[in-house]
Amino acid sequence: MLKLFKEIRRAGDATVGYPFQPLEMPAGFRGKPEHNEKLCIACGACAIACPANAITMELNADQSLITWDISYGRCIFCGRCQEVCPLFAIKLTGEFELAVKNKGDLRESCSYAVVQCARCGRPYAPAKEVDYARRVLASVGGVAATDIEKLDLCLDCRRADDAEAFQKQARERKGA
Amino acid sequence: MLENDFPSQLQWRPDPVALDAKVAEAKERLLGSIKRSVYVYRVDCGGCNGCEIEIFATITAVFDAERFGIKVVPSPRHADVLLYTGAMTRAMREPALRAYHAAPDPKIVMAYGACGCTGGIFHDNYCVWGGTDPILPVDVYVPGCPPSPPATIFGFACALGLLDQKLHESHHVAPVGEEAPVAFPAIPYKVRTAFEREARRMSGYYYGKQIVDEFMMAIAKDRVNVFGAVDALIDGEADMRKKAVFMDLKTLLLSKVVDE
């Protein structure tokens, strides 16, 4: 009997004290994706990459706001969003205590303003994304920085500009 | 749910089971008094078996759910808690309902895993009707794919009213004119992205990011003697794999150097 007790003492206790003590998850554990609203430029890369469509991006009715939305209930914790995010705004944390009683509590969302085209007035991209692109292009300089003022235009207007420039160039070349 | 061509009036859809007032009241009383020692019956409605593996990991010695009296039983007739795993598939709706009706009232229903909560990655499959909630009144949702054993224990504690949920719905509106900062503004953008790509190519997105951050921190810290800082970083690294990535990044850095 004493031998048994000695053996038990030697073997120790394998059980974790989890609900009574906090549990440290190992590094690299893929838990709750943490979205950094300040870093996010609402580019939508995570929404495209998300295999389970847990992350969605939707425009509101008058297209003035784009809403980033995650459903932790649908998330499969694959980390694709973290992989594709160009600004590292989303990161899978060690947080695992996600159980809820109300399904609505599984949602988290963040709205970003959408800018209008300087010429035609149609909404075309999130304001933060355009602002970020402008600063990055300015810092890169050279050829990339020559197109900075075109960032205020929507894709359609830029295409129209390009087409006109091309036409003009073709005519000039023909005339010469 | 996916919009398909099959007319919806021809698809049989069960009415969600509604809890009558008497049972609901009994459930409140039960939750107030038991707190522990509940028997769990798990129902797989069409999952991949990942959740089942985690449930059995929860009752092993390491996480030992049985110290709270939580026991997995082989029949719904013994159960206090019904654990629904997997997306609610058309084929499994009837067995799921039968298990629900077989369990004695009052009972707690838990939706387990991403599929049990919302249908998960299978939410738009032709035979999937979403999670457990379209047909059954769910008390606790335990997300995860699969939920880890501690998450399972937390889910049980939530269901029994021992712990409070930590997650709450939140909506944030970004202030107008908020600027997203460019990472490492001291390092040229193209050089930084080239480093990031190379490090990720060498060691994947997760470790690649950590390694490239360490590398760029070293560069940003010592603006005068950049190569000295990089060499110190390489020499100080004990892990050969990480060292190889650092050396690779150094080669890339050398290729980016321009004479002035």
Automatic annotation (TrEMBL), chain A:
UniProt-recorded Gene Ontology molecular function terms: 4 iron, 4 sulfur cluster binding; metal ion binding; NADH dehydrogenase activity
A GO term from the CC aspect: membrane
Record keywords, A-Z: 4Fe-4S, Iron, Iron-sulfur, Metal-binding, Repeat
Gene3D superfamilies, per database record: 3.30.70.3270
Chain ranges of the 4Fe-4S ferredoxin-type domain: 31-60, 66-95
UniProt entry tagged with the keyword Iron-sulfur: yes
GO biological process: aerobic respiration
Full protein name: 4Fe-4S dicluster domain-containing protein
Originating organism: Parvibacter caecicola
UniProtKB/TrEMBL annotation, chain B:
Pfam families for this protein: Oxidored_q6 (PF01058)
EC class name: oxidoreductase
Cross-referenced InterPro entries: Complex_I_20kDa-like (IPR052375), NADH_UbQ_OxRdtase-like_20kDa (IPR006137)
EC number: 1.6.5.11
Span of domain NADH:ubiquinone oxidoreductase-like 20kDa subunit: 48-153
Highest taxon of the lineage: Bacteria
Cofactor(s), names only, from the UniProt record: [4Fe-4S] cluster
Keywords noted in UniProt: 4Fe-4S, Iron, Iron-sulfur, Lyase, Metal-binding, Oxidoreductase
One term of GO molecular function: lyase activity
Keyword Ion transport: no
Stated family: Belongs to the complex I 20 kDa subunit family.
Protein name: Formate hydrogenlyase subunit 7
Organism: Parvibacter caecicola
Top-level taxonomy: Bacteria, Bacillati, Actinomycetota, Coriobacteriia, Coriobacteriales
